[in-house]
Amino acid sequence: MGKAKQQVDQCMSTVQGAVGTLQQALGSAEKQDNKNRIQQAINSLNSAMQQLSGFQD
After folding, report:
1. pTM of the model
2. Residue 24 above 90 pLDDT?
3. 3-class DSSP state for residue 29?
4. pLDDT value at residue 12
5. Closest by Cα among 24, 1, 20, 16 to 48
6. Closest by alpha carbon to 56, among 11, 9, 14?
7. Residue 23 C-alpha from the chain's centroid
8. pLDDT class of 7 with cuts at 50, 70, 90
9. How many angstroms separate the CA atoms of 49 and 16, rounded?
């Protein structure tokens, strides 16, 4: 496995952790505006992971 692939895999793991944390924040957010912002961030991170999921090195 190439170094770039290892780094991408590590990044994806970190992003997955961030998504999990944001989902917890989404559950505890009270203001709808904050919920929307958190959901947008989750969507963006999931999109980034989809783009990286096909990475080959």
Report:
1. 0.88
2. yes
3. coil
4. 95
5. 16
6. 9
7. 10
8. very high
9. 8
CA distances to 12, 19, 41, 50 from 26, rounded to whole Å, are: 20, 10, 10, 21
* Those residues with Cβ within 8 angstroms of residue 8's Cβ, 6 or more apart along the chain or in another chain: 52, 55, 57
C-alpha distances out from residue 4 to 14, 22, 31, 51, Å = 15, 26, 40, 15
Domain residue spans of the chain? 2-54
**In the chain, beta strands by DSSP E:** none
pLDDT at 56 over 90: no
pLDDT digits (tens, 9 = 90+) for 25-36: 999 999 999 999
Torsion angle, alpha carbons of 4, 10, 12, 16, to 10: 180
